[in-house]
Design goal:
250 residues; Rossmann fold; eight-stranded mixed beta sheet; 8 strands
Length: 250
């Protein structure tokens, strides 16, 4: 199993599927999930390119250090850049779902020259309003406390796929929480093609998806009928078809 060890000692689990000549695609999972969530999608995308999937710090088979200070959005964005370096990819199509989509946008703000396109699934741009951000953070911290109390059971069907539920809780406190408006303020400056995907039943993120599509110049907005928050899992055929069509048009 491939691992990448970061300068701070954190080991990241990742997988590479495919070997085509197309621009590589890197996919980041949502909070509380892992790279396994892309199992039904990566193969479909790998016919013409390498597809990189990975586990965020504290998630899946990646390391879950006890030092809370090692869990930040900035560290996760740097991890993503390091994985591209490891793959020898100067640029990539960068995509993710929920937290993974937010981190993809944050990566684009930090490393715009390394992004060939964006795939943003059931996600949002964060908050410009401090009160709204504080409410989001309160929910994230409550989720972390619930995981600490209940362990893997608090993560539902994803629970068995994490080496350390405590690491997921620390990720909630350090990566899921938001502290600035970097992402939402960067949307109008994005110059690469962007695909915004959301399930029709993902009520909390329908407005966020519409906002992303309106603010990112030229973004394509796709609503997947009948899908919920995990649109790639709820409707894999439709999801894969929309992503493949987007990739073919790059």
């Amino acid at each position: 199993m491939p691992y990448l060890t970061r300068p701070d000692g954190v080991r990241l689990y990742y997988e590479v599927t495919g070997s085509g000549d197309g621009v590589p695609l890197i996919l980041t999972h949502g909070f509380g999930s892992s790279s396994r969530m892309w199992a039904g999608n990566a193969g479909a995308f790998a016919a013409s390119r390498r597809v990189i999937t990975w586990d965020l710090r504290g998630h899946g088979r990646s390391a879950a250090p006890e030092d809370q200070g090692l869990y930040t959005a900035e560290a996760s964005v740097a991890d993503l850049a390091a994985l591209l370096d490891e793959a020898g990819a100067e640029r990539a199509v960068v995509g993710g779902l929920s937290l993974g989509g937010y981190l993809s946008l944050r990566f684009c703000a930090a490393y715009p020259d390394r992004v060939a396109a964006l795939i943003l699934c059931d996600t949002g741009p964060g908050y410009r309003n401090e009160q709204a951000r504080a409410e989001w953070n309160a929910r994230a911290l409550a989720q972390a406390d619930r995981i600490d109390r209940k362990g893997a059971a608090a993560l539902g069907s994803d629970g068995p796929h994490h080496d350390s539920p405590a690491g997921v809780a620390r990720a909630a406190r350090g990566i899921l929480t938001q502290h600035d408006g970097t992402v939402i303020e960067s949307l109008s400056s994005i110059t690469v093609p962007a695909l915004v995907v959301v399930g029709s039943r993902d009520t909390p993120f329908l407005g966020a998806a519409s906002y992303l599509a309106a603010k990112i110049p030229g973004a394509k907005h796709v609503l997947i009928d009948g899908a919920g928050h995990m649109s790639n899992l709820d409707a894999p055929s439709e999801f894969n078809g929309e992503v493949l069509a987007f990739l073919a048009g790059l």
